[in-house]
Amino acid sequence: MTISEYNSSIDLYSDRLYRFVLKSIKDVQRAEDIVQDSYEKLWKNVENVNAEKVRSYLFTTAYHTMIDIIRKDKRSAFSEDLKLTEESHENNYSDLSEVLKEAVGKLPEIQRMVLLLRDYEGYSYQEIGEMATLSESQVKVYIYRARVFLKKYIGNIEVVV
Q1: What is the number of other CB atoms lying within 10 angstroms of the CB of residue 101?
Q2: Is the pLDDT reported for residue 11 higher than 60?
Q3: Locate the RNA polymerase sigma-70 region domain: which residues (predicted)?
Q4: Which of 106, 91, 99, 120 is nearest to 149 (CA)?
Q5: What backbone torsions phi and psi does residue 81 show, to the nearest 5 degrees?
Q6: What is the pLDDT of residues 92-101, one digit of tens each?
Q7: Do 90 and 73 belong to one domain?
Q8: Where in the sequence is the domain holding 63, given as residue range(s)?
Q9: Long-range own/partner contacts, residues 120-128 (CB < 8 A, 24 or more apart)
Q10: How many CA atoms lie within 13 A of 121 on its CB side?
Q11: Which of 5-19, 67-81, 110-124 is predicted with the least confidence, judged by mean pLDDT?
């Protein structure tokens, strides 16, 4: 990979990478740090990374960095565990995007990641599998489970709207 290809990867992928990380961890400064760390790791390995695989490399690196941060946070936070119950959504919201954002936030981390990569970023099952080091069938299962949870959580759409 050349320096111009590296600079081109910044122009092409930094916004998408940032959006993906931000939707996953919901912390602007951490998202910026993770994106910057991903590009720093790419720079350190610029000679070993194929220019055609740079997108996958960046998303995989960002994904693993996020997982490490989330695990570290879970170890340091002692009593605040999220209870992920599959209950129907009972609040009356007028904004469907607000309800969906809340529901996605309650998903287990791996399900949220693959769902965001598929539905928000538009990656194929195979690309997501490469990024998350999962098989294509595992990706499909996680996406299916996430969608079932969202359907149960949101409940009847007429109640929400």
Answers
A1: 12
A2: yes
A3: 12-75
A4: 106
A5: -100, 135
A6: 545 677 878 8
A7: no
A8: 1-81
A9: 120/19, 120/20, 120/23, 121/16, 121/19, 121/20, 123/59, 127/56
A10: 28
A11: 67-81
Please state the pTM of the whole predicted model: 0.56
Domain end position, chosen among 39, 57, 81: 81
Residue entry with tokens 């607000």: 98
Task: Reply yes or no on whether the pLDDT at 151 is more than 60.
Answer: yes
Residues 71-115 pLDDT 10s? 777 766 544 444 444 444 444 545 677 878 888 888 888 888 888
The token pair at 27 is: 């912390």
Total structural domains in the chain?
2
User: Residue 91 is encoded by which pair of tokens?
Assistant: 């609040």
Using the 3D structure, point to which of 50, 81, 112 is the last residue of a domain: 81
- Which residue has 């960095």 as its token pair? 65
Structure tokens at 28: 């602007």
